[in-house]
Structures are given as structure tokens and as C-alpha cells.
Amino acid sequence: MNMSRVTKKNMEKALLALGLVGSLQIGTVSAQKSVQSEHPRSLLKQGTEMFQDKNYLGALHRLTEFRKQCKDASLSEEVDYMIVSSHFYRGDNKALVQLMDFLEEYPATYRRAEVSFLVASCHYDNGEWGKAVMWFEQTDASRFTVEQREDYDFRYAYALMKQKRSDDAYRLWSKLATGSKKYGTDALYYKAYIDFQAGRFAESTPAFERLQSNAKYREPSLFFFDANGFQSGKYEGCNKAWRRFFEILSAQQLFTRSISHLGQQLFSAGQFQ
User: Fold this and answer.
1) How far is 133 from 108, CA to CA, in rounded Å?
2) In terms of Cα–Cα distance, which of 73, 140, 71 is closest to 110?
3) Scanning 35, 198, 268, 270, which has its CA 20 to 30 A from the CA of 238?
4) What is the spatial distance between Cα 144 and Cα 220, in angstroms, rounded to a whole number?
5) pLDDT tens profile 10-48
6) What is the pTM of this model?
7) Which of 123, 125, 147 is closest to 137 using CA atoms?
């Protein structure tokens, strides 16, 4: 084998690879320089539009560069709000810290409601229900858009329920169940569940019957619908209903304690044969 030929080929490959890498680096640097060379006013306009369009990565690039170039104190609060919010919506791990830093930097901010809601949502996402409720209660949602208010009501209601404040959660579930396209079905289920737990079987039965046509809530709704019938003393057809429930339940271990408790009641009453 001609070693010089091999060496030459290897050198050609290496030069080609270096050329590709160089091109990529030049492209990246050019893109960065392109952003850096833009007028601050253009960066602010583009960043704001991207934020409104929920292009949070693009918004971060434009607005962060704007903050480097422009030190106008009258604009810093709103720009910083969009920056920390973008970090939250992108799921950044340090979003909570950045949101808290924003509130410390701007204690009298007119964006307090929005930022407090995002802080509450961070705790909500982490399953820290007590902290979430505390921050939801500090949030003035009166100025929120319809979409923001529905998100607020749903998360607040769920956190309240996790804190065993069912009566407070029930009012929010009732509101969402009748007025929200986004959360109406979920709210109807949780409202009916609270009714069931409180022994209001007549109120929960129609909801669970309606929810049986929904794929997400079919199994639990069927269970509670049949349980309502048993608790109301309507034993006729209970055997068939329970068999139907266990057939569709499959391998899911759903509401094990409730099934065990009601199963014992059925055996005691001689209705499960």
C-alpha cells in the first residue's frame, strides 16, 4: 500500500472537515453579529412581537441583546418581565429564582399579578401545593385575559383540592364547568367527584353519566356512576354494571381503596353474585 497516498487522502478529509466546521462557526458568528448589529429599537420591537406570538426562544435572544445595548430605565421593567416570563414558559429550571429576583428588583411592579401567578405555577408544577395556594391567593386575577383567568382558576382549584379545601375548590370547579371550553370537562369531573365524596349522589350522578362518553374520564365515571346507584339503594343491575366496569378497567389500578370498600359493602348486602 502506498502510504503517501493514504496520508494525502487523510489530509484532504481533514481539510474538508475543518472547512465545514469553519463554515458553521462563521455562520453562527454571523448570526450573532446580525442580532448584535441591529438597532435597539428594532430588537425591542421584534422581541416583543415574538413574546406575544409565544416564540419565547426568539424573544429571549432579542430582548436579552436589547438589555445589553439599551440602559433606558423606563423600559427595563417591561423587558425584564418578558425575559423572566419567557424563561418560565420554556420550562427553564431557574425560572422560579428569576421570577423572585424580578419581584425583588421591582417591588411596586404593575406586573405583580402576572409574576405572582407564574411563581404559584412553578410551585404547582413541583407539587408544592401549600406554597402554590399561598401565591395564588396573592394574585389579583381581575385584569387577566380570559385564557389567563381560566388557567389561574384551574390550577388554583386543583391546588386547593390537594390541600383538602374542597369547598373553596368546588366554587371554582362549578365556574369552569359551565363557562370554560378549555377546562369544562375536567372541571365537571372534579366537581362531581367532590359531590360524591360529600354524599351528594343526586348531584354527581348526571355528571358521571355524561362523562362516560369521554375517553379520559370513562373508567372513573363509570365506577362512580355505579357506586352512586349502590349508595342510593338501586341494586337492580348492579352486578352487570360492576362486571362491565372491571372489564374495561383492565390492568389499571384505579381507585383501589374505593373499590375495596364498596366491594365489601356489596358482598355484605348480598348483591354481588
Assistant:
1) 22
2) 140
3) 198
4) 33
5) 545 544 444 544 544 444 444 444 545 568 889 999 999
6) 0.72
7) 123
Please give the DSSP secondary-structure letter assigned to residue 165.
-
The 10s digit of each residue's pLDDT in 53-112 is 999 999 999 999 999 988 888 899 999 999 999 999 999 999 999 999 999 999 999 999
pLDDT tens readout for residues 174-184: 999 999 999 99
> In angstroms, what CA-CA distances link 40 with 32, 77, 147, 256?
14, 16, 31, 60
- Angle between helices 112-125 and 146-162 in degrees, nearest 10: 40
Of residues 205, 252, 197, the one with CA closest to residue 233: 205
Exposure string over 37-59, b if 16+ CB within 10 A, otherwise e: ebebeebbebbbebbeeebbebb
Q: How many residues does the chain have?
A: 273
C-beta of residue 222 within 8 angstroms of C-beta of residue 248 = yes
Q: Which three cell numbers stand for residue 144?
A: 387577566
Contact 157, 166 (CB under 8 A): no
Give me Rg for the CA atoms of the chain.
29
> What DSSP character marks residue 110?
T
Q: The C-alpha cell of 6 is what?
A: 493514504
How many beta carbons lie within 10 A of that of residue 214, not counting itself? 13
Torsion of CA 46, 47, 50, 52, to 10 degrees: -110
Exposure string for 124-150, b = 16+ CB within 10 A, e = fewer:
beeebbebbbebbeebebeebeeeebb
Report DSSP letters for 124-150, one per residue: HHTT-HHHHHHHHHT--GGG--HHHHH
Beta strands in the chain (DSSP E): none
Return the residue matching grid coordinates 407539587. Answer: 127
